[in-house]
TrEMBL record:
Molecular function via GO: L-ascorbic acid binding; metal ion binding; oxidoreductase activity
PANTHER family: OXOGLUTARATE/IRON-DEPENDENT DIOXYGENASE
The keyword NAD is assigned to this record: no
Keywords of the record: Iron, Metal-binding, Oxidoreductase, Vitamin C
Similarity-based family: Belongs to the iron/ascorbate-dependent oxidoreductase family.
Origin species: Salix dunnii
InterPro entries assigned to the protein according to its UniProt record, in alphabetical order: DIOX_N (IPR026992), IPNS-like_FE2OG_OXY (IPR044861), IPNS-like_sf (IPR027443), Oxoglu/Fe-dep_dioxygenase_dom (IPR005123), Plant_2OG-oxidoreductases (IPR050295)
Protein name (Swiss-Prot/TrEMBL): Fe2OG dioxygenase domain-containing protein
Domain of life of the native organism: Eukaryota
Source taxonomy: Eukaryota, Viridiplantae, Streptophyta, Embryophyta, Tracheophyta
Pfam families: 2OG-FeII_Oxy, DIOX_N
Fe2OG dioxygenase domain boundaries: 184-293
Length: 345
């Protein structure tokens, strides 16, 4: 089915017809290729050869000025991207009572189905249904995963391992781009975890479109989030005060800077505010891999990032403290980090 037109507002078209660039990317002042006026498009293949240091600079600019990027040549095969999407679609097309066997309201569950909900205070419906689960180390969790659809464990394992591999390569590059020492990088990457989510956004009745979101504006409480969207638009990022749709590119991932990376980088990188809108014609799916540190990881910025020009903003705190505080505060965005500011002490 064709992507729903209604979700792309005309005033967000970045490159007017007739401009020299009928291509959908444009080069910005840092030499980054910008996709439809939204996020830089980065070739991860560049990390594996003579272009490594240039690619690291591109990644650093992308995180600093855009809060994320689109990622091609990430090493996850086209077949696997197709397989995980089909498996997710099959799962969400199972009868409700089959899916609901995995329902849990407890956010600490090792696997749980979360359903859409009405926020009575704001009078909006948040329609995402998601299956969320821990995925690293995989042998610890795979036996908790569903066996319906029958491809689930094999395909989801394969995808999570491949996504994790790409994440580690990427994180090493991002940390290197910040100027972090090897010791600090290892401290964060040792024993870090992976939490994944299959996201399903059902179509929405036309008359309810104004009061329905797939997800409301938020930042992710992660180091980075790696998102595989299907071909249906819906993801929007806040850019210069406007919500701008990020049009999916086939076989290309979307990477967001999360709050943890904002904290670790002493605000050099800023986490990306994003939301999902729905449409009345086409369901939408996405697969998210959330990369987070182990509970006892110290999340204050490493000392090598601090100097007279970059005074320390955050004190030392563990990921566990961050996470516990987050659930108490129930804030949707990086304001969660304010509790850990030196000035808040
Ligand atoms: C998320 C998220 C966006 C999407 O899972 O945190 O923002 O497009 N997902 O599904
Ligand atoms: Ni998100």
């Amino acid at each position: 089915m064709a992507p729903a037109k209604a979700v792309v507002a005309d005033d967000h078209v970045a490159f007017p017809a007739g401009s020299k660039d009928t291509a959908l990317t444009k080069i910005d002042m840092y030499g980054l290729e910008i996709w439809e006026g939204t996020l830089p498009l980065i070739d991860m293949g560049g990390l594996h050869g003579p272009r490594r240091s240039d690619t690291i600079k591109q990644l650093a600019h992308a995180c600093q000025h855009y809060g994320g990027f689109m990622l091609k040549n990430h090493g996850i095969s086209e077949k696997l991207l197709g397989d995980i999407m089909s498996t997710a679609r099959e799962f969400f097309h199972l009868p409700e009572e089959e899916r609901m066997k995995l329902y849990s309201p407890d956010p600490t569950s090792l696997i749980r189905l979360a359903t859409g909900f009405k926020d009575d205070k704001q009078n909006v419906f948040v329609s995402r249904e998601s299956l969320k689960f821990h995925a690293h180390p995989i042998e610890k969790y795979v036996n908790l995963w569903p066996t319906n659809p029958s491809s689930y464990r094999e395909v989801v394992s394969e995808y999570c391992v491949a996504a994790k591999r790409a994440e580690i390569t990427l994180l090493e590059a991002l940390f290197e781009g910040l100027g972090m020492e090897r010791k600090s990088i290892d401290q964060i990457l040792d024993n870090h975890g992976q939490y994944a989510s299959l996201n399903y956004y059902p179509t929405c009745d036309k008359s309810n479109l104004g009061l329905t979101f797939g997800l409301r504006g938020h930042t992710d409480p992660t180091i980075i989030t790696m998102l595989l969207p299907d071909e249906v638009p819906g993801l929007e990022i806040l850019k210069d005060g406007d919500w701008v749709p990020v049009k999916p590119i086939p076989n290309t991932l979307i990477v967001h800077v999360g709050d943890v990376l904002q904290g670790l980088s002493n605000c050099r990188y800023e986490s990306l505010l994003h939301r999902v809108i729905v449409n009345s014609e086409t369901e939408r799916l996405s697969i998210a891999s959330y990369c987070y540190p182990s509970n006892d990881t110290q999340m204050g910025p490493p000392k090598e990032l601090i100097d007279d020009d970059n005074p320390l903003i955050y004190k030392d705190y563990t990921y566990e403290e961050f996470y516990t505080t987050m659930w108490k505060q129930r804030l949707p965005d990086a304001a969660r980090l304010n509790a850990f500011k030196i000035s808040a002490a």
